[in-house]
Design a protein that fits this description.
The longest helix is centred in the first third of the chain and has 13 residues. This protein has two domains: 34 residues, no CATH class; 121 residues. The termini are far apart. A hairpin with a 7-residue loop joins β10 and β11. By secondary structure, the chain is mainly beta. 19% of the residues are buried. The strands form two sheets. An eight-stranded antiparallel barrel has the order 3-4-5-6-7-9-10-11. A two-stranded antiparallel ribbon has the order 1-2.
């Protein structure tokens, strides 16, 4: 007869001071000093969520300046239109800005220099981003971090480029 061995769940312990009480949370409600405090801690953790972001547009280069026009895409379920500008050094992205808007508000993203990793024979660029200035429905997104992990910029000048990643929003 075979014994089944159940894999152990990896849980990280966190200590948080909350209204003068110390809460020990393992993420599953064990070892909690106060049930009310635990509910508050869990709601704060769940308030931050990662949402997918993806965009498409036409990219043009002039020297080290890159411009993306006719940019359309989504952050979560919200659809946006806009444009982007940035700079490159060779083929490596050095940073820039994305300007997005819709009828509910606007979002300006600051893109940081790419982190480059070698994957086989290919170079993979990951670009950190932050919501710099947001208005309307998206005002609460200001300061939210993100990361663009997929870049597909074709060599043909009139081809459509695509970008995707995730954002952590409240």
């Amino acid at each position: 007869m075979m014994n089944r061995i159940r894999p152990r769940q990896k849980r990280s312990l966190r200590f948080e001071a909350l209204e003068g009480r110390l809460v020990l949370s393992t993420g599953v409600g064990m070892g909690v000093v106060s049930h009310e405090a635990h509910a508050l801690v869990r709601s704060q953790v769940q308030a931050q969520r990662q949402v997918p972001a993806s965009f498409r547009g036409h990219v043009s280069e002039s020297g080290s300046t890159v411009t993306t026009t006719n940019l359309t895409g989504t952050i979560g379920r919200d659809h946006f239109k806009g444009s982007a500008t940035g700079t490159t050094s060779g083929t490596i992205f050095q940073g820039g800005y994305v300007y997005l808007s819709n009828s509910k508000g606007s979002v300006t993203l600051k893109l940081f220099p790419a982190t480059v990793t070698q994957v086989g024979k290919r170079i993979r660029q990951t670009v950190a981003a932050v919501a710099l200035d947001c208005t309307g429905k998206y005002a609460q997104y200001t300061g939210s971090p993100g990361e663009l992990t997929t870049w597909n910029v074709p060599a043909r000048p009139n081809a459509t480029a695509s970008f995707s990643g995730v954002f952590t929003i409240p």
